[in-house]
Amino acid sequence: MSTVRIDNREGGVRLLTLERPPANAINQSLLTDLSAALDDARTDDAVRALVITGSGKFFCGGFDLAAPDLTGQSIQLLLELYRDTHLQLLTHPKPTIAMVNGHAIAGGVILLLACDYRLGLDDDYQFGLNEVAIGAAFPRTAFEIVRLRLTHTQASELLLRATLHPATEAPRLGVVDDLLPPDTFEATVMQRAAELGAFPREAYAHAKFALLAEMVERVKAETIEEALHAAAVWMTAESRAARSAQREKLGKRTPKG
Fold first, then answer.
1. Residue closest to 139 by CA, chosen among 81, 65, 58
2. E-assigned strands of the chain?
């Protein structure tokens, strides 16, 4: 069963909904399903724009902290899948909009920042890049996406304070472009996606690739040794302890390892 639901809307808009309850947390399955959905949208001429959202109360809760710790070859494969899927989204030739319907935590914020345009629901939920607080290292792909979308001041506040913020702070911190009222939220997102999708396709893609070219080259230049060095931060004693405490806080069972 896919963790990404696909729905086609008016104006050539395709809605991709992350469906991995309760938090739409990122794992190999979700990344694989999202990659397949992005590929399909790329080659389908009927699709003019993409909207990505989450099911339930979460947009995306970031990496699945309840998953067992990975080792060896499995870490390398996950890092490659993470990089490739986020580059697919970031460089998708068609307009992409994040419809931020609820909590966006850690990798969930990176996922929404990989979209061209980000619209949030004006409601009671939280967002933040709390990786440092739970002993997690940022893959280079994530760092480059943050540097692309946010100012240095915004990035420093999110990355180094590593706290969760109320949704009302999302525009100030550059995470969303606008907050919309609940009664018009989805309709407004779909309308704006259709408007972007109505632009000449080749012109949009050309401008987008030109804006992203240098950043994409920096991501692709990372060696596997550099990627594994960053991933090793996850495995220190302090990092393991921080994630264990977070699992307990979330009411999750701590896996052995």
1. 81
2. 4-9, 13-18, 49-54, 58-60, 96-100, 103-105, 117-121, 126-128, 165-166, 178-180
Catalytic residue among 19, 80, 131, 226: 131
Would residue 124 count as lying in a domain? yes
Phi, psi angle pair for 103, to nearest 5°: -50, 135
Encode pLDDT of 192-203 as tens digits: 999 999 999 999
- Number of domains forming the structure of the chain: 1
Decide if 251 is inside a domain: no
Our answer to whether residue 144 is catalytic in this structure is: no
Tally of CB atoms within 10 A around 208: 18
Q: Which of 180-184, 197-201, 218-222, 252-256 has the lowest mean pLDDT?
A: 252-256
What distance in Å separates the CA atoms of residue 133 and residue 192, rounded to the nearest whole number?
A: 36
pTM: 0.92
Beta strand 13-18 with 4-9: parallel, antiparallel or unpaired?
antiparallel
CATH number for the domain spanning 118: value is 3.90.226.10
Q: Which domain holds residue 55?
A: 4-182
Tell me the pLDDT tens digit for each residue of 33-80.
999 999 999 999 999 999 999 999 999 999 997 766 556 678 888 899
Which tokens in the block code for residue 157? 């506040």
